[in-house]
Specification:
Order of helices and strands: HHHEEEHH
Number of domains: 1
Strand order of the largest sheet: 1-2-3
Oligomer: single chain
Radius of gyration: 15 Å
Enzyme class: hydrolase
EC number: 3.2.1.17
Structural class: mainly alpha
Bound molecules: 2-acetamido-2-deoxy-beta-D-glucopyranose
Largest sheet: 3 strands, antiparallel
CATH class: Mainly Alpha
Low-confidence stretches: none
Pfam families: Lys
GO molecular function: lysozyme activity
Protein name: lysozyme
């Protein structure tokens, strides 16, 4: 019982849902503003629609792969979830993307956009952000 409580507390401590401007500033501090020509507003919009800024977001796809974390990084292409055969392009465990320490997720997101399809890899971006006025995503954030 006590160990269960400790586990629950650890799980809570490790989960983080960012507030929009806090996330915008975190992205900027990690070199994402303009990375590969992608604006800060694009990153904020992408993560709004992919995970609602939730580092613990985890969603399984029809093909059996799973999308992990605030960027919803896919286990077939980019990380190892030990459930399916992965190309593991980021050479990381998918579980690393479910942490309130976002450094692994940011490193992998940068790797994803260096591929030819760039930010179009994310349907959440294509459907909700591409070609739109995204100024509201960073407004009032001082970034
Ligand atoms: C966050 O994770 C990275 C590795 O992904 C590590 O190098 C760094 O020390 C961690 N930062 C904190 C504050 O734990």
């Amino acid at each position: 019982m006590r160990s269960l409580l400790v586990l629950l507390l650890l799980a809570v401590a490790n989960a983080k849902i960012f507030e929009r401007c806090e996330w915008a500033r975190t992205l900027k501090a990690n070199g994402m503003d303009g990375y590969y020509g992608i604006s800060l507003a694009d990153w904020v919009c992408l993560t709004r629609w992919e995970s609602n800024y939730n580092t613990m977001a985890k969603n399984t796809n029809n093909d059996g792969s799973t999308d992990f974390g605030i960027f919803q990084i896919n286990s077939y292409w980019w990380c190892n979830d030990y459930l399916i055969n992965s190309h593991n392009g980021c050479n990381m465990d998918c579980s690393a993307f479910l942490s309130d320490n976002i450094s692994a997720a940011i490193t992998c997101a940068k790797r994803v956009v260096r591929d030819p399809q760039g930010i179009s890899a994310w349907y959440g971006w294509q459907y909700n952000c591409e070609g739109r006025d995204l100024s509201s995503y960073v407004s009032g954030c001082g970034v």
